[in-house]
Amino acid sequence: MIIILKQNADQAAVKDLCRELEGRGLSIHESQGAETHILGLVGDTKSIAESWLRASPVVEDVRRVSEPYKKANRKFHPEDTVVNVSGVKVGGGHFAVIAGPCSVESESQIGTVAASVQAAGAKLLRGGAFKPRTSPYSFQGMRAEGLELLRHARAKTGMPIVTEIMNNEHLPLFADVDLIQIGARNMQNFELLKAVGRSGRPVLLKRGLSATLEELVMSAEYIMAEGNDQVILCERGIRTFETSMRNTLDISAVPMLKKMTHLPVVIDPSHAAGIAWMVQPLAAAAVAAGADGLMVEVHNDPAHALCDGAQSLTPAQFSALMDKLRPLVSLMGKTLD
């Protein structure tokens, strides 16, 4: 249920109303924008009469919400959420580019890539330390050592780091990671979602290979229900009957998620197709659809990458991509952070 308050409502009366609602076992999510002041009621609202609420001198209107997600719902929070990742803003007109290798392979590799993507305009450095792989015989990442190499790269460049967590037992290792990534395979690992929610760290949540958009938003709700509203949604392609590419980028997810939720939405064009030459057109489509950022894989030597070399751009290709995207981002009324 949503309560829309009158403009310039008496704050003492608003507090009295909130206390009475909380006394009935409801929690309140408050959102105040330039022109709207909303109270979102979370809990069993069946016993709350709309006529009783409308009788309050501070209430303008009351609406019931049928969607199961409350905190992530745009109806509860009409204005876009801006996620602050150690000074880099994502959402609300701020367009952020995350770039780096699929996996951290060595100090020289991550250092070289970090310097190159930063020079091209990326603001956040990605790199996998723990790697979920389909085959148990594939490279699984450098794990804790990879995290340390990411920290070294951050110290040299000043770029916040983005890396994937696979297990809530690893959370202490991620205490200083700027943006914790939940991968597609863990989108519905609910204990992990709750753990990162309690951590208070910004979270990048990737859509599962066969997940609906509502299931993605409900996973974000798990994080937000723990008190963490710093969540970025990531569309990275879904599995369809098409076999000419790794996955199918659901570009329609961007405007639909924007309607459903107030959270920032970014696109990962690298995983979407799994083909390097497709990254540029898919990235441009993402910008045009209204995405708040991109997550692009860049490797200094894709032919010899230990993970996903076929979808990785070289530093020169990434720089050319950024040059093509800048005017498009500006045309969409966003700033390239």
What does the secondary structure layout of this molecule look like, with pairings?
Layout: E1 2-5, H1 11-23, E2 27-32, E3 37-42, H2 50-54, E4 59-63, E5 83-85, E6 88-90, E7 94-100, H3 107-120, E8 124-126, H4 144-157, E9 161-165, E10 179-182, H5 190-199, E11 203-206, H6 213-225, E12 231-235, H7 253-260, E13 265-267, H8 269-273, H9 279-289, E14 293-297, H10 315-331, E15 335-336
Parallel strand pairs: 7-8, 7-14, 7-15, 8-9, 9-10, 10-11, 11-12, 12-13, 13-14
Antiparallel strand pairs: 1-3, 1-4, 2-3, 5-6
Helix pairs in contact: 3-4, 3-10, 5-6, 9-10
Domain DAHP synthetase I/KDSA: 84-321
Organism: Candidatus Allofournierella merdipullorum
Keywords: Transferase
Helix content: 25-40%
Strand arrangement within the widest β-sheet reads 7-8-9-10-11-12-13-14
- CATH topology group of the largest domain: TIM Barrel
Q: In CATH, what is the class of the largest domain?
A: Alpha Beta
Structural class comes to: alpha/beta
Number of H/I helices: 10
**SSE arrangement, N to C:** EHEEHEEEEHEHEEHEHEHEHHEHE
Low-confidence stretches: none
pLDDT averaged over residues: 94
- In this structure, how is the largest beta sheet organized? 8 strands, parallel, barrel
In angstroms, what separates the terminal alpha carbons? Answer: 36 Å
Number of strands: 15
Rg result = 21 Å
Assigned CATH superfamily of the largest domain: Aldolase class I
Instruction: Count up the domains.
Output: 2
Into which percentage range does the β-strand content fall? Answer: 15-25%
Tell me which CATH architecture of the largest domain applies here.
Alpha-Beta Barrel
Shape: elongated
